[in-house]
Amino acid sequence: MMKNTLKVLAIVVLVAVAATTNAQKASKIGHIDLGKVLEQMPGQDTVKVVMEKYVQTLQGELQMMQQELEIKGADYQKNLPTMSSIIKITKEKEITDLQGRIEAFQQSAQQDLQAKNTELITPFINKAKQAIKDVAKEGGFAYILNANEEIVLYSDGGEDVTAQVKKKLGITQ
Questions:
Q1: What would the pLDDT profile of 73-123 be if each residue is shown by its tens digit?
Q2: Is 165 within 8 Å of 37 (Cβ atoms)?
Q3: What is the pTM assigned to this prediction?
Q4: Cα–Cα distance between 122 and 92 in angstroms, integer?
Q5: Domain ranges, residue 128
Q6: Which of 7, 74, 154, 157 is the most exposed place for a label (fewest CB within 10 A)?
C-alpha cells in the first residue's frame, strides 16, 4: 500500500512539475521595436521615394488650383468697379466654387496619401509579422509586444527579440 501511495505521489509531483514548466513556458514574453525594424527593412527607401513623388504630384496640382484662384481674385478686384452686377455675381460664384474645389481637393489628397502609404507599407508589415510569429514559435514565446508604442506600461524584463526578427528579415544594421 505504501509503495502505491509513493507511486501516486511521485506521479502527482511529476504532473505538477510538468504543468508548472508548461505554464512558465506559455507565459514567456518578448518585446520588439517594430517601428525601428520596419524602417530598416530592405525596400523602405523605395517606399519613401514613391511617397515623395506622389506628394509632389498632389502639391503641383494644388499649386495650379491656388494660382488659378489668385488670378481670378486679382482679376475680380481689378475689374470690380467696371463690372455689371450679373458679371460680379458670376465672378464671385466662380471664385467661391474654386475655393470649394481646393478645400475638397486638400481633404481628398490627405485621404489619398494615407491610402497610398497603407498600400505601400502593408506588405512590409505582413512580412515583419510573419517573422515575429516565426521567432515567437522558435523561442517559445507566448507574447511578443511592441515595446516602442507605449502599449506596455510596465515591464520587468522580458526578452528583446528585435535582433532575431531582424535576422529573419535579412536586416544586418
A1: 999 999 999 999 999 999 999 999 999 999 999 999 999 999 999 999 999
A2: yes
A3: 0.66
A4: 45
A5: 2-169
A6: 154
DSSP character string of 116-166: HHHHHHHHHHHHHHHHHHHHHHHHT-SEEEEGGGT--S--S--EE-HHHHH
The H or E element containing residue 41 is: none
Tell me the C-alpha distance between 94 and 100, whole Å: 10
Helix (H/G/I), strand (E/B), else coil: 31 = strand
What CATH number should be reported for the domain holding residue 132?
Answer: 3.30.910.20
Q: Which H or E run contains 172?
A: none
Higher pLDDT, 120 or 148: 120
* Local structure of residue 43 (DSSP, 8 states): T
- Total domains in the chain come to 1
CA distance 30 to 41: 20
